[in-house]
Amino acid sequence: MTSHELTQSLNLARALDLVVSSRIINGVLYVYNATGQAKPWESFSAEFPLERLQAMATRSQLRQKLAN
After folding, report:
1. Strand partners, 54
2. CB under 8 Å to 58, separation ≥6 — which residues?
3. How far apart are CA 40 and CA 32, in angstroms?
């Protein structure tokens, strides 16, 4: 994953409220959800690859448009 893809993934995950913060501990990037649970980035990105996050964001935008 390139640094651009990492940034894009983190931004989408934050916009979708999947991630509220992140930090590096001993060289490992961890992401935290709203309940404060930490997950290594490798594990999170396996569950939510960039393509899935993009699809989720698109669906969210469509729902917002339909609600208005």
Report:
1. none
2. none
3. 9
Retrieve residue 45's tokens: 């990105």
> Has this prediction a pTM greater than 0.90?
no
Query: What six digits make up the tokens of 29?
Result: 């990037």
The C-alpha atoms of residue 14 and residue 20 are separated, in whole angstroms, by 6
Nearest CA to 10 out of 29, 28, 34, 27 is that of 29
**Beta-ladder partners of 28:** 25
pLDDT score at 1: 85
CA-CA-CA-CA torsion sign (65, 45, 31, 7): negative
Is a pLDDT exceeding 90 seen at residue 68?
no
Token digits of residue 40: 């290594």
Can you tell me the mean pLDDT for 11-39? 96
3-state secondary structure of 34: coil
